[in-house]
From TrEMBL:
SUPFAM superfamilies from the UniProt entry: Nucleotide-diphospho-sugar transferases
Source organism per UniProt: Shimia sagamensis
Name of the molecule in the record: Glycosyltransferase
InterPro entries: Nucleotide-diphossugar_trans
Superkingdom classification of source: Bacteria
Length: 257
């Protein structure tokens, strides 16, 4: 089975350095051969070991590039630059802290994270696209369905996660599957210290395969922190987080002077 790790970079929020760190971290946490691919609008500065392609054009309006992560849907195109095999998509603001190989073997036409236990402890699954797996070219009907009724679907759903949650099972691929809870952690919900304690204690060290960031803070805030609070009030974080700095520099990232 061919194995492909996919990521995507557009705009200026994340630099090429994020791509390179993710690539190096993936190499350190994969057993056997794989191809690392970045779909991007700007390949400058990306490691030559990364295969780069333009983000496929499916006619997204400019507003859809700024709200939600609708461009992610393009990875499901029936022909994605001739790539074949099982793909594991990983957001750039992700820390890889364990073996990724078995994530390629987890069954399902579309496997993703369930953020419900993080946010609500119990209740129905909530689809998240920080890291997901699928057969390249095997679920192209997702894109066809979206493109065929784009204006309505953009209006009905706030982001690509909600669209996939609401529409995927209607397309004949079966139900969405979710990663085991202990394979993934959220910085906000698992590692950040409780209120008040976060003023005196550093965030906990990740123990899962994957650490996901969503919103503020972003990884760079823990590496090259701004003056004062890098977290969102009333939460508080200050200064560098040593384990995050170690991860970033170990896999080729640089620090500000």
């Amino acid at each position: 089975m061919d194995r492909v790790i996919l990521t995507m970079k557009w705009g200026t929020l994340y630099s090429a350095e994020y791509v390179n760190v993710l690539f190096n971290a993936a190499k350190a946490n994969m057993d056997g051969d794989f191809t690392f691919v970045c779909l991007t609008d700007d390949a400058e500065g990306i490691d030559p070991g990364v295969v780069t392609h333009p983000i496929p054009d499916i006619g997204l309006p400019q507003s859809a590039w700024k709200a939600g992560a609708w461009p992610k849907l393009t990875v499901f195109c029936s022909d994605l630059y001739g790539l074949k095999g099982r793909a594991l998509f990983i957001d750039l603001d992700t820390v890889i802290s364990g073996d990724l190989s078995e994530m390629f073997d987890f069954p399902g036409a579309f496997v993703c994270l369930d953020s419900c236990p993080w946010r609500y402890k119990s209740g129905p699954a909530r689809t998240g696209t920080g890291i997901f797996a699928f057969e390249i070219g095997g679920v192209g009907a997702i894109v066809d369905h979206f493109v065929g009724d784009m204006s309505r679907l953009l209006a009905d759903y706030g982001n690509e996660q909600d669209f996939l949650h609401g529409e995927f099972s209607k397309l004949g691929f079966g139900e969405i599957q979710y990663w085991p809870d202990d394979w993934l952690q959220s910085f906000k919900y698992h590692l950040r210290q409780p209120l008040i304690l976060d003023r005196i204690l550093q965030p906990r060290v990740p123990t899962a395969k994957i650490l996901c960031f969503h919103g503020r803070p972003r990884p760079i805030d823990l590496i090259d922190p701004p003056v004062g609070n890098w977290d969102k009030f009333p939460h508080y974080g200050r200064g560098q987080v040593p384990w995050m700095v170690d991860y970033w520099t170990r896999f080729g990232g640089t620090l500000k002077d």
